[in-house]
């Protein structure tokens, strides 16, 4: 396969990679930060394990959104089906652009959500009965990851190959 | 993401803050009828170890040790807490110099929970191995030892070391790179300066004496404080009213113990916002000082009850709690 002749599919694949890579990295960092806080609380009070685990997992969703967009991109260009379609350079670039929102927003919101989750774990450490409220603060950050997912999803779906 | 290195430590401290005594618990402790009952109360709250639960000193010392054990375990860089270990370190130096000069031996006058414990400090001073001391201590140790040997003036030796301690605290605060530690160190020096001014006034000391005892700081102006101290106690209070320590002026007019109490309360007030920090060293410092204040308050209550003080007299000395 000549890469120069198939630049379209290269761009499209790059789009899928951006979605999975950046959103996944954001989640990994976010879950990592929250995990440190969770470990701190469980060291002193193991009975709070379940509650802090749930909060720790909240920044993990960006990775899943990136995976979803990566997945539909791959099936759109036929790579998942076994036979790669003939994607024009302009279509490939369009797909790359469509993947950017979830990639970039996923990275930044994952980190931000991780920090908020770590702070919320502090609430659970001191006032476990306020678990519901503590969950809401990191969940607010999630809104923007979902908005980015929505746009990336609609855009990738809407591009005609 | 450089600011996330305290995430684990802060979360752990958050979990530990739950066990700190609130004002309500201190009230309960106050309402105990005897010292033994009060001691039993704190032991039931988990204080001390299984052994020696009847000796208040052992219980309180163990609590101090526990606090430092936690901080050393969780802090990614314990050197920022140097500021807090300096008073004990310099106390050990002072005690060692006096022991060497008087050739008396009192093992109980040293602190062992600091970077250079009593025994070692004594050996260093005895053998004059001042290079083994931290750089900020070496010179003053040598000078103070020689001064005491030549003049036999214990007070002169004390003020030399105390001033060096204050200067080292301020320097360590600045070098820590953490605004909260810097602020804490500066407050500590300012309060020490104010105390020196008040005591010098009471004992009629000269301006030169005060100048040789006080250390520079951002909170108060040493020269103005000295002038006020020479003029009178009221003038000290008046001067303080124009600084960040205005409320201390009121406490100063009330009584010496009210002023001491105000000093501790001010530290706690300054540190209280750290309860809402999630990613800095602040909550660790807040916890450390909160524990120190808590232990001090329990000690005041226990000794007050042991010596038959009235509840009112004890209450006057009780500090504000962190939680």
UniProtKB/TrEMBL annotation, chain A:
Gene Ontology molecular function, alphabetical: proton-transporting ATPase activity, rotational mechanism
Highest taxon listed in the record's lineage: Bacteria
UniProt entry keywords in alphabetical sequence: Ion transport, Membrane, Transmembrane, Transmembrane helix, Transport
Membrane topology summary: Multi-pass membrane protein
Main location, first listed in the record: membrane
Subcellular compartments: Membrane
InterPro entries assigned to the protein according to its UniProt record, in alphabetical order: ATPase_proteolipid_c-like_dom (IPR002379), ATPase_proteolipid_csu (IPR000245), F/V-ATP_Csub_sf (IPR035921)
GO-annotated cellular components: proton-transporting V-type ATPase, V0 domain
Stored CDD domains: ATP-synt_Vo_Ao_c_NTPK_rpt1 (cd18179), ATP-synt_Vo_Ao_c_NTPK_rpt2 (cd18180)
Entry's transmembrane regions: 63-85, 92-114, 134-156
Annotated ranges, domain V-ATPase proteolipid subunit C-like: 14-72, 96-154
SUPFAM superfamilies linked to this entry: F1F0 ATP synthase subunit C
Family (UniProt): Belongs to the V-ATPase proteolipid subunit family.
Stored PANTHER family: V-TYPE PROTON ATPASE PROTEOLIPID SUBUNIT (PTHR10263)
Name of this chain's protein: V-ATPase proteolipid subunit C-like domain-containing protein
Species this chain originates from: [Ruminococcus] torques CAG:61
UniProtKB/TrEMBL annotation, chain B:
Keyword DNA damage: no
Pfam families given in the database record: vATP-synt_AC39 (PF01992)
InterPro entries documented for this protein: ATPase_csu/dsu_sf, ATPase_V0-cplx_csu/dsu, V-ATPase_V0D/AC39_subunit, V-type_ATPase_csu/dsu, V-type_ATPase_csu/dsu_dom_3
Listed SUPFAM superfamilies: V-type ATP synthase subunit C
Signal peptide: none
GO molecular function: proton-transporting ATPase activity, rotational mechanism
The keyword Transport is annotated on this UniProt entry: yes
Alphabetically ordered keywords of this record: Ion transport, Transport
PANTHER family per the UniProt record, alphabetical: V-TYPE ATP SYNTHASE SUBUNIT C (PTHR38682)
Family as reported in the entry's similarity comment: Belongs to the V-ATPase V0D/AC39 subunit family.
This protein's name: ATP synthase subunit
Origin species: [Ruminococcus] torques CAG:61
């Amino acid at each position: 396969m000549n890469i120069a002749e198939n630049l379209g599919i290269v761009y499209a694949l790059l789009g899928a990679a951006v979605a999975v890579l950046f959103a996944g990295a954001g989640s990994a960092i976010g879950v990592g930060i929250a995990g440190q806080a969770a470990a701190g609380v469980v060291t002193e009070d193991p009975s709070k394990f379940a509650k802090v685990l749930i909060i720790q997992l909240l920044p993990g969703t960006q990775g899943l959104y990136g995976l979803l967009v990566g997945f539909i991109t791959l099936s759109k260009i036929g790579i998942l089906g076994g036979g790669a379609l003939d994607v024009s350079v302009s279509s490939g670039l369009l797909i790359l652009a469509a993947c950017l929102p979830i990639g970039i927003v996923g990275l930044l919101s994952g980190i931000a959500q991780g920090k908020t989750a770590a702070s919320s774990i502090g609430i659970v450490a001191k006032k476990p009965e306020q678990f519901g409220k503590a969950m809401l603060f990191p969940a607010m950050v999630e809104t923007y990851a979902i908005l980015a997912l929505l746009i990336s999803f609609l855009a990738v779906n809407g591009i005609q190959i | 993401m450089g600011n996330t290195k305290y995430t684990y430590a802060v979360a752990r401290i958050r979990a530990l803050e739950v066990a700190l005594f609130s004002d309500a618990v201190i009230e309960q402790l106050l309402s105990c009828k005897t010292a033994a009952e009060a001691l039993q109360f704190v032991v039931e709250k988990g204080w001390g170890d299984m052994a020696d639960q009847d000796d208040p000193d052992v219980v309180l010392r163990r609590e101090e040790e526990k606090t430092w054990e936690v901080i050393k375990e969780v802090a990614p860089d314990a050197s920022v807490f140097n500021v807090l270990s300096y008073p004990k370190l310099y106390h050990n130096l002072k005690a060692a110099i006096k022991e060497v000069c008087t050739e008396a031996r009192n093992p109980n006058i040293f602190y062992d929970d600091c970077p250079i414990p009593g025994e070692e400090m004594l050996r260093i001073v005895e053998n004059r191995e001042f290079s083994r001391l931290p750089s900020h201590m070496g010179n003053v140790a040598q000078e103070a030892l020689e001064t005491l040997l030549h003049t036999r003036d214990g007070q002169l030796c004390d003020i030399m070391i105390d001033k060096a301690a204050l200067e080292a605290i301020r320097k360590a605060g600045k070098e820590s790179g953490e605004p909260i530690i810097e602020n804490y160190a500066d407050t500590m020096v300012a309060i020490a300066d104010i105390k020196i001014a008040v005591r010098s006034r009471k004992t009629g000391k000269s301006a030169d004496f005060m100048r040789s005892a006080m250390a520079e700081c951002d909170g108060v102006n040493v020269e103005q404080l000295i002038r006020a101290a020479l003029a009178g106690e009221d003038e000290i209070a008046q001067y303080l009213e124009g600084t960040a320590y205005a409320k201390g002026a009121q406490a100063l007019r009330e009584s010496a113990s009210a002023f001491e109490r105000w000093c501790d309360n001010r530290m706690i007030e300054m540190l209280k916002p750290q309860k809402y920090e999630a990613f800095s060293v602040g909550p660790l410092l807040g916890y450390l000082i909160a524990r120190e204040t808590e232990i001090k308050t329990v000690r005041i209550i226990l000794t007050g009850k042991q010596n038959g003080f009235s509840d009112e007299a004890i209450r006057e000395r009780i500090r504000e709690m962190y939680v």
